[in-house]
Each structure stands twice: as C-alpha cells, then as structure tokens.
Design brief:
globular, alpha+beta, 5-stranded antiparallel sheet, Rossmann fold, 7-stranded mixed sheet, DNA_methylase_N6_adenine_CS, methyltransferase, DNA methylase, 28 strands, nucleic acid binding, 27 helices, transferase
C-alpha cells in the first residue's frame, strides 16, 4: 500500500502555519525548556500523511488532499473525519513511534488524533518534557481524591483537563507561598514590600592599584517610554577609601561602563576590557578571564529592584540589611544537608572538558553546575527542591496515586526548569520590552555567562516563581483547551535498541538529531542536576546515570560534538554519529509494518551532511520514496535558526533480492520519473526551489530499486551522486525558456546565472544552496563564485557594479550583460565598446535574451533592473555605436598600415 506521504504532502500549508498561530508550536514550547522546536503544523502533516493511504483513483486523491488541507487550519480541525480515514487506512489499528521524541512535538499529534503513540528519548530531561506534553494531559485524573490544601471549591472538576489544570494552579500557589516563607529570612522586605530582585556583578582586584571593582557591561536600566523618562546608573568610586557604590539617575547613561572596549596607545584592544573605576587601568579579556579562572572573582550586590504600587520598576542601592541577608544566605547554604547519600544539596555534577563553546561559565572558572549561581540563588533552589519532594510525600500520604503525584511534581519541576533559564550568572538584566531578566540561551543550545547578572527574588516580577508559574499555567490552559485524544507511552531508551517487537507500528515518524547542530545532553545538564533534586523521591529512575561527571549519559547520544577546549576522550565524532544513526534507522526499519513508512524530518544545508545521511539510510536497509520541503525554521523562537527549509522524507524497507543497476539506466529513469512527477508538482503549485528539494524523493526511490548501481567499469556508485542529477532533472522538466530561447542553448556560466535568477532573484540564500546549484550544474564553485557573492547571512547574485570580468570574444553572455549594465550610465559609446570587445551585436540572440530576462526577473526597483531596461531601450543604438567603433577602429588600422608602408619606403 502506497502512503500519502510518498506521493503528496501539504508543503504550502505547513510553511504558512509554521511561523505563528496554532501550527507554530509556540504554546507547546512554553510548557518546558528544550531545544529544536518542531512546528506542530509540520508534525501534524507528517503524522497524517504517514498514516493515510494514497488511493489509485484521482478523484479520491483529490478528496483526501482537500481533507488534509482543511485539517491544517487548526489544532483539531476535521478531527472526526481524519480519525475515520486513518482507521480505514489501517484496518489492523494505527500506531506510531518516535524514537527521538525530544519534547514530544511529533507524538503529540498522534495523541491528539487518538492514535496509539510511543515516544522514546535518550535524555531524561526530554523524557520528562515529553511526558508532560503528550501523556499527562490526556490521562483521566478525575477519580483522584482532592488535594489536602488550597481553598475549598466545592465539587471537583469533572473534565480530566480541567481537573489537572485546577490542581496545578493550587499546587503552584501553595509552592509559591511555602517557598517565600522558607526564603524570607534571606530576602528582607523594603518599605513593607518584597523587592523584585537584585543586580549583581563579579568584582576583581585591579592589577595596578589593587582595589576591587565590579565588571558591568551596561549602565542602562530603563529605556524612555511615553511620558516615563529613561533611567540609568553608574559606579562612583572613592580612591582613598577603596569604596565604590552604584548611583541611580534619570536619563540615558552618560558614562562608559567598566566592561567596555579599551583604547591603548591609540589602538582598540580586542574584546571587552575591565577598566578599573579607581585608576582607569584596563584589564584585557585574557587578564580578567584569568583572574576569574583563578577564583579571584567575588560577587557583589550592586542594585536592588522594586516594583512600585503603579507596577513600575524602580532601582536603588541595597540596604545594609539586604547586603547582610545575602551574606547570611551563604552561611545557611553551607549547612544544608544532602538530599541523599549520593546527592548533595549544592550540585557537584561536573562540567565535562571541551564544553567551552556550550557552557559559557566554564570559560570563566566554573567547574561544576553548583558554580552557576550566587549562594542565595542556590539556597533558593535547594529549598524549592525540598518543598517539591515534601509536597510529593504529602500528596501520596493523602491518597493520591503514585502516577498523579509524579505528574504534579513533574509540572512543578517544569516551572523550576523554566526558571533556571533566568536564574544564573548568564541571566543578564535587559531593558528591552521594559526591564526584564535575560535568557541563558541567547544562542540555542549554548549557555551564556555574564559578569553582571540579575537575581529574581521571591516577590513578583520577571523571573520569579510567581511569574514563571503563571507562564506555565497559561501554556497549560492553552494546551488543555478542547483537549481530545489518548495518552502517549513515554519511555527513556536508545533509538539504537528499541524495546518493541518487529513490525509493530504503522509508521515511525521522527525528527533525528542533525549532525553537530545541538549538543542536547550537554546543554541540558544544568536542568538535569536540579531535576534530580526536585524529583529524587517521585521520579528516582531519572536520577540513575553512569556518567563520570554525574550528568546525563552520553555514550550513545547520536550527535557530532563540537569541542572547544581540551577533551581527549570525546567519542561523539562523525564516525560515531554515522554508525549510530544507521543503527537507529535499521531499528526503525525492523519495527515498522510491511505496509508502513519511516518518515524522517531532516533539515541541513550542507551537501556533505546529506551525503552521509543518505549513506546511513542505505546502510539501514531503507529506501527513500518521497521528500517534501517546507519552510519551518524562520521563526527562530528559541535562539538563532540554523536552517529555514526542512524535508519530510518517506522511507520504506528496501525490497529483497533487488537486481544491480547500471548508472546510465538509473540516470535515465530518474529523469523520466521527475518529468512525470513535475506535472503534479506544477499542478499543486510547488515553487521551483521546493521542486529541487522534492526531487530527492523520486531520485532515491529509483536508486532504491537496485541493490547497487554500477558504472561502466563495474564500480559501485555512491547514491549521493544522483541528488545533483535530480536537481538538474527538475530544470530539464521545467523546460525553462529565456525569451523563447531554451536554457540549454546558453553557455554553462550564463545558464547557471539565469537559473539562479529564475529561482531566487536577488534574495539572499544559504551558502549551501550555492554548493548545491554548482553540483547540479556540473561546475566547480570557483567558476561561478564571482557571480554569487557572500553577503551577511548567506550569498546573493552579484550587482553589476561589483562584477568584474574580462570582456573579449570568449566572454560568457552573462558577463557581457552585466558589463553593459554597469557602463550604461556612461553612454552609448561605452556600451558600444563593450559589444565590440565581446564580438557581439544588436542581433545576438542569446545576449539580448539574457538581458531581457534579467530586466524582467530582477525587482522593479533593483538598480540593475533599471540599468538592463536602459540597455534594452537603446539596443539598436548600442549596435550602431559598436559598428561605428568598429569602423573607426578599421579606419585607424588602415591609416596605421599606410603609415607603416611609407616608413618602409623611406
């Protein structure tokens, strides 16, 4: 049975819904901190199309396509009809598996459809995230006894989702009250109110005068907004006493912060220098980094932040009582007992070597995850973890089931994990959008470090328990609305050794790790250290690890680890990734039914990564039978987006006893198959650039018909060889004409340029797209590098003013055209000379077809488009100028010849 995803996929609808609204996944990611957001629009489409059959009747095909397109208009759109169609397509029952579930975005869509779903992940942090998103909300908790605290509200909610939401609100409020009470000795009130928080800075001893001074990167506090003036501060220092203090004032900062670019002997010092407020001595980056690595940094309280009765944020110097309270918190932390014989109060889990590019604090001397906070913050989290454990025991003692206690404490820990994003030395104070606490993950998957940072207190305001728990509750409220479906089975395990029997699932739908894009375990170990402490009583299985540093296990993590710093034992190499991803794909092949598909969502721009991925799919005994592009990554919700377009690929177990194939025959079959599919792609409105990516599916399907493909000498051909061919076949199938001239009629360099303009115009594209296009054109990148130059964020077709080429009779048409555009403002004589040098005329069909195409395809306001239209308007005059220049040249040549002859007679 052919599945829908092997023949059609709602690419346009996925792209349209991935950036915002229900299909973006923004509500889902608000529940728990994890990486690599998969838009729900793509997850839903991949799941539906993997479960539906593809009928032979064109009318039935159209009916199912329309149904899926309507289903892409909302979270539960066309829910009943979809369930009926899925059941009809899977008479033995529908079931799905995601062995790389992450936070659970893909299995969530199976759960919402009422399809039996299994989710597996190697990371215990991801397992918790997936459980809270895909299992707990769909479980019926209405038979659980009432909570032993909170206000009496009469009858308990009868809706499972309402019951869970109500209990979470009660628990979060209770934890907030208990936590505030537990921490009140170390957070004194100011004017009978709890401060929002405190700005801290690390201090170092000046290497010139010996006095300690704070490292602060910005003096801005509040940006001017409406009638409210800006606010700032500066550090005032008294050299005689060695005392400094923060001075708050209205207006923008007028002084340079202590951490800034220094000028020494008229030259800018590389990196930010720490400039002493007492003597002005600059400490270059290497120096102040070394001082912190030598543990010479000491944290100092700089400012206190309040929220007044109007809800506005104000700043002041901390009181003596507040400074003493912070000091006493250090004493209290030192006396905190361990959670268990193997789990001390302060995290002692170590940061593995080679993590300088992922764990920013390690560059500045942090050795363990207990080094990430000031002592009062650490004490606050220790108290919070104890409260969650105590609450779990209390709930269990009053009759709540073990699983419901796990669920409630799991959601409480989700608040802790989200709070951690704004609660370490990387949580910088930010003025954008009003005063806020910054996120540790400025770049997705990398924890930042800052010399000055903000500590949220136990009152209200960004970063506090009240704020973060409200945020999680809002996410739950959104997700639980109109809840339908069944719970997912969530397990911790390795994709290389699935616990399931053979041929168990209708479809495996997964989003595997992308090479070296994100180091999931290393980036989430901070969460893991506190997750263990919050849940060691209710989820003890999550705390089990064999990692040498006490963190998450990484021996079978399928990534390529980018190492910075010393890491002699790092095993997560490309060889490791390729071997284990092949094992994982082989396991997927084993557990999928004969009539099912393995659907892989993958996005990477580099041809080399695709080569290795296809090799892994082939070694796993799978063949690709469909591939569909969608623009799913442009939102960049959690840090920078590495890619914009992802492919949703359908694979099947390779048929047994396949024959060998010949390269020439396979190439011909690929071209024929893509030409056949092109008719549908065009009918469905697929953009040409999307067709290039979709071409991988039919190409690999053809290759998969053979056990191996041999060249004329009998040598095996790498399957990756056929991807560029597939892209070229799209160009052939489109039968592109340039002003009634077939594209193939142009020289190779011009053909490349015109095809690029046909696809992308003047838009900036990823650098990898240039590599793909040169491969498809059979050219070396050096042959066209001057036509598509580097820009910020990628590559773009060159402007005529930046183009330089030798114009002679061998010049390509594109070079002549660009040169004509460049000299067009210099007049007819200049353009005529270009035609003359190139040996072209006003009747050169290919040159003028290229000029017309460029004039039409580039944006109307593009400077070159204007120039090309100028050239076209004066085409005949340019030809006349070229003829006149040629005649003048001939006359000059004749005159010179006569003069030379006369000289010989003398």
């Amino acid at each position: 049975m052919t599945r829908m995803i092997e023949r059609w996929f709602p690419s346009a609808e996925v792209s349209a819904n991935s950036d915002r609204g229900w299909g973006s996944g923004n509500s889902e990611i608000s529940l728990f901190m994890w990486f690599a957001k998969r838009p729900t629009a793509q997850a839903k489409a991949a799941t539906i199309c993997s479960l539906l059959k593809w009928p032979d009747d064109p009318d039935e095909q159209k009916r199912l396509q329309d149904l899926v397109c309507r289903a892409m208009k909302g979270r539960y759109a066309e829910w009943s009809e979809l369930r009926q169609e899925i059941a009809a397509s899977n008479p033995n029952g529908a079931s799905t598996l995601d062995p790389f579930s992450g936070r659970g975005m893909i299995p969530l869509e199976s759960a919402r459809l009422g399809v039996t779903a299994h989710a597996i992940d190697y990371s215990p942090v991801a397992v918790l995230a997936s459980y809270l998103l895909t299992c707990a909300p769909f479980t019926d908790w209405t038979a659980e006894p009432p909570l032993p605290f909170g206000e009496e509200s009469g009858e308990l909610p009868t809706s499972p989702a309402d019951r869970l939401l109500s209990d979470l609100q009660t628990v979060f409020n209770e934890l907030g009250l208990r936590h505030a009470e537990a921490m009140s000795p170390w957070y004194p009130r100011y004017e009978d109110a709890l401060p929002w928080g405190y700005l801290w800075a690390v201090t170092i001893p000046c290497q010139e005068c010996g006095r300690r001074f704070p490292l602060i990167g910005s003096y801005e506090l509040i940006a001017a907004r409406g009638d409210r003036p800006a606010a700032s501060f500066h550090i005032a220092a008294e050299r005689s006493s060695g005392h400094w203090e923060a001075v708050v004032s209205e207006g923008k900062p007028t002084r340079t912060p202590t951490l800034s670019n220094a000028i020494v002997n008229g030259r800018k010092v590389a990196g930010k220098s720490a400039i002493c407020v007492f003597c002005g001595h600059p400490h270059p980056l290497a120096v102040h980094r070394r001082l912190l690595q030598e543990k010479q940094g000491v944290d100092a309280l700089v400012l206190a932040a309040d929220i007044d009765h109007r809800g506005q944020k104000t700043f002041r110097r901390p009181t003596t009582e507040e400074i003493e309270a912070a000091r006493h918190a250090s004493e209290a932390l030192a006396s905190e007992p361990a959670f268990s014989p193997f789990l001390p109060a302060v995290p002692n889990e170590g940061i593995a070597p080679g993590n300088n590019n992922i764990i920013g604090p390690s560059i500045y001397g942090a050795k363990t995850y207990g080094d990430f906070m000031v002592d009062r913050q650490t004490l606050s989290y220790v108290k919070l973890a104890r409260l969650i454990n105590d609450l779990g025991a209390e709930l269990h003692a009053t009759g709540l089931s073990h699983q419901y206690v796990k669920t409630i404490t799991g959601y409480a820990t989700a608040v802790v994990v989200k709070k951690l994003r704004r609660s370490t030395r990387g949580a910088r104070f930010q003025t954008s959008g009003g005063a806020r606490v910054g996120d540790l993950f400025v770049n997705e998957g990398s924890i930042t470090f800052s010399h000055d940072f903000f500590e949220a207190g136990i009152g209200d305001g960004p970063g506090t328990w009240a704020s973060i728990s409200d945020n999680v509750l809002a996410a739950c409220r959104n997700l639980f609305a109109d809840m339908r479906g069944v719970p997912t089975t969530v397990q911790r395990g390795s994709a290389t050794a699935l616990p399931d029997g053979p041929k168990e699932f209708s479809a495996v739908v997964t989003d595997p790790p992308y090479d070296q894009m994100i180091a999931y375990a290393d980036a989430s170990d901070l969460f893991y250290t506190w997750l263990k402490r919050c849940l060691h009583a209710t989820w003890p299985e999550l705390a089990v690890t064999t990692d040498d540093y006490g963190c998450q296990e990484k021996s079978n993590e399928i990534i390529v680890k980018r190492v910075r710093g010393e890491a002699p034992d790092e095993h997560r190499t490309r060889e490791h990734y390729d071997a284990l991803i092949s094992q994982a794909f082989a396991e997927m092949r084993r557990v999928v039914r004969d009539d099912g598909v393995v659907t892989i969502v993958f996005g990477h721009g580099e041809p080399e990564v695709w080569q290795r991925l296809l090799g892994s799919i082939e070694r796993a005994g799978l063949v690709m039978t469909g591939s569909w592009p969608a623009n799913t990554e442009s939102g960049g919700q959690q840090g920078k987006a590495n890619i914009e377009t992802t492919l949703t690929m359908a694979c099947r177990p390779a048929p047994p006893q396949r024959p060998n194939g010949r390269k020439g025959t396979v190439e011909a079959e690929i071209k024929a198959e893509i030409k056949r599919r092109y008719v549908d792609w065009e009918r469905w409105g697929l953009a040409p650039a999307d067709m290039l990516m979709a071409a991988a599916g039919p190409a690999m399907e053809v290759v998969g018909r053979f056990s191996q493909v041999l060249d004329a000498r009998g040598n095996a051909v790498d399957i990756y060889t056929f991807l560029p061919l597939a892209r070229a076949a799209v160009q052939d199938a489109m039968a592109v004409e340039i002003n009634h001239q077939p594209l193939d009629a142009f020289d190779a360099r011009t053909r490349f340029a015109l095809w690029w303009i046909r696809l992308y115009g003047r838009q900036i594209q990823a650098k990898s797209e240039l590599r793909w296009q040169t491969l498809a054109s059979g050219m070396d990148i050096t042959q066209v590098r001057d036509l598509v130059g580097e820009e910020s964020g990628g590559v773009r077709f060159v402007f005529a003013k930046d183009h330089s080429a030798r114009i002679d009779h061998e010049a390509a048409s594109i070079d002549v055209a660009l040169t004509l555009a460049y000299v067009s403002e210099d007049g007819l004589d200049a353009m005529g000379q270009v035609l003359l040098d190139a040996g072209r005329g006003a009747d050169d069909v290919q040159l003028w077809a290229a000029v017309q195409f460029l004039a039409d395809r580039l944006p109307d306001n593009d400077v070159d488009s204007i120039a090309f239209h100028r050239v076209l308007r004066t085409r005949n005059a340019i030809g006349d100028a070229a003829s006149a220049a040629a005649a003048t040249k001939t006359e000059a040549s004749v005159t010179q010849s006569l003069q030379d002859a006369q000289l010989k007679l003398m």
